[in-house]
Design a protein that fits this description.
Structural class: alpha/beta
Strand order of the largest sheet: 1-2-3-4-5-6-7-10
Number of helices: 9
Shape: globular
Strand content: 15-25%
Length: about 280
């Protein structure tokens, strides 16, 4: 597919390397060399940190920058010890506003200097209260956008509500799981309905297109953007981003974890949104 590329800034550090996690489940012996290749490749600017559970940090070389998933939740942060190569801590297991308050307190006390902090936001009725706790802090939201069962994938309406909720609060977020490809699609092998990361970028632009911090588009309008499945049409909408759009969107949608960095790179190349060096074939 032909078309003009977009500025690198739109995809800068967008793809966190979650090779260790499902459905990829790469062994550490393959994941670390793979991450090193990504970080020294022509598309290195698009690659974020190596995502690793705290229980496996001893297997990760000290020169590899990591985003640490604290499997024990907020209470386990104090016992992590020094983490000089941690770009971020990610805290799961939050179900209520009180849990979120505990996560914020634990991150403030135990987060390595200079690292970011993400709190995984629950699905369901407690989500707005958790977002309220995070709003105005130095920490960010994390949304789960898929998994290994169909029920792990939020609908367009549910994800739109989450994105608009963050936009209204000025709360940046990342996503994890399920964003395997650029555009909304049905996986042929599982039948799961996957969100597209380009759709999330479009949705974030619409949700933040307001004034004085107010959200822009309605949840219904944002859900319509998340539902788009025509790759060429989605790519054309992405090409219409202004420099201000790119800055605003990427200050809100920070990154997402992907178990295969090759997939988003290949999709962007196929849509003509990034330039592959002439000396390379269009694969990673």
């Amino acid at each position: 597919m032909t078309g003009s590329a977009v500025p690198v800034a739109l995809f800068a550090a967008l793809f966190d390397d979650a090779a260790l996690f499902p459905p990829g489940n790469a062994p550490m012996s393959a994941a670390i060399p793979g991450h090193r290749r990504h970080r020294t490749s022509w598309y290195a600017d698009f690659v974020g940190p190596f995502v690793c559970a705290d229980t496996r940090l001893a297997e990760v070389p000290a020169d590899v920058v990591v985003s640490v998933v604290v499997t024990g939740g907020a209470a386990a942060i104090a016992g992590l010890g020094p983490l000089p190569h941690a770009a971020a801590l990610e805290v799961p297991g939050v179900e209520t506003a009180a849990d979120a308050e505990a996560a914020v307190a634990a991150l403030r006390a135990g987060r390595p200097e200079g690292s970011a902090g993400f709190v995984e936001v629950p699905r369901g009725p407690s989500r707005p209260a958790v977002l309220d706790v995070l709003a105005g802090t130095e920490f960010f939201a994390k949304f789960r956008t898929g998994g290994t069962v169909a029920s792990a994938f939020p609908s367009e309406a549910e994800l739109a509500e989450a994105i608009v909720g963050c936009a209204a609060r000025g709360l940046p977020f990342k996503c994890t799981a399920g964003l395997h490809h650029a555009v909304r699609h049905t996986a042929p092998d599982t039948g799961f309905e996957h969100h597209g990361f380009l759709n999330v970028l479009l949705a974030t632009r619409a949700a933040t297109d307001g004034v004085s911090g107010a959200s822009g588009a309605s949840e219904a309008d944002v859900a319509e953007l998340l539902a788009l499945r025509d790759g060429a049409a989605v790519a054309d909408l992405i090409r219409a981003f202004s420099a201000d759009d790119i800055d605003r969107v990427r200050r809100m949608f920070l990154s997402y974890g992907t178990c295969d960095i090759a997939e988003p790179i290949e999709d962007l190349a196929a849509l003509g949104l990034i330039v592959v060096p002439d000396t390379l074939e269009q694969h990673v």
